[in-house]
Every structure is written in C-alpha cells, then in structure tokens.
Amino acid sequence: MKSIARFHNHIPSFFDNFSFGRELSSAWTNGTATPSVNVVEHENGFRIDVAAPGLPKEAFSLNLDQRTLTITAVSEAKKETNDGENYTRREFSYSSFKRSFTLPDTVDSDKIQAGYKDGILSVDLPKREEAKPKAARQIEII
C-alpha cells in the first residue's frame, strides 16, 4: 500500500515533465470559453444577455455585419510579480469567446445599444416601428 501511495504522490510531477501535461491542463483552464446567453423578446425589441463575470467592459467588442451581430471578448489575467523575482515557470492566462447571432429583419440596426453591469453584457435590439404591434382600431366603412 505504501508503494501505491508514493507512486500516486509523484503523478503530478511526472506529467509536469512533459509538454502535453502542461498543454492539457492549460486547455481546460484557459483558452476559448462559451458564455451562457439569454435572448428575450419584448414588445419593443429583443435583448441579448451574455454572462461574462470577471471580464472588464474593455474586453468586449461588438460587430454588426449586415444582419449578423458578433460579440467577442479577449482578456488576459495579469499576475503581479515583485522586482527581482526569478521564476522557472510561469503560465499565461488568457480567455476569449466569440458568439454570433443572425438578427431578424425586424431589428432597427441603427439603434442597437449595449451596456455592461455586474458581469452581464446586455445588448438591446429595438424593433423597427413598422414591426411593433399596432393597437387595435376600428375601421370606418365608406
């Protein structure tokens, strides 16, 4: 039993000596992530909420090409170091994502707005006036 326990204790350092061990662990903790998204339709338009806690507002980019809205974010987690530090290994930490949405013809693309608060990016997509529901009315017969 003691030999199994000793072997088990050496497994992490064993994989640290090979590049695929570092790449595998980095792929799971860093890289591309896909955030959760809610899309809501209301009377005057749509709203896309993207859950991206921990990212600063400056990390986001929104691009509209024809009817395709693309939301991207790139962030680098900087680790503070003190002067005179000598490290033998330091892993970079980047995260990014890209989501694209095909917008319906009813969206007024000139009035799209976005805001970021409490880890949620909200994109407001107002409907064109002609696409909004009209109030019921009586039609006069002539």
Automatic annotation (TrEMBL):
Supply the Pfam families for this chain. HSP20
What SUPFAM superfamilies does this protein's entry cite?
A: HSP20-like chaperones
Give the source's domain of life in one word: Bacteria
Q: Could you tell me which residue ranges the SHSP domain spans?
A: 28-142
In which family does this protein belong, per the annotation? Belongs to the small heat shock protein (HSP20) family.
The name this protein goes by in its record = Heat-shock protein
Organism whose genome encodes this protein = Arsenicibacter rosenii
Could you read off the lineage of the organism from its UniProt record? Bacteria, Pseudomonadati, Bacteroidota, Cytophagia, Cytophagales
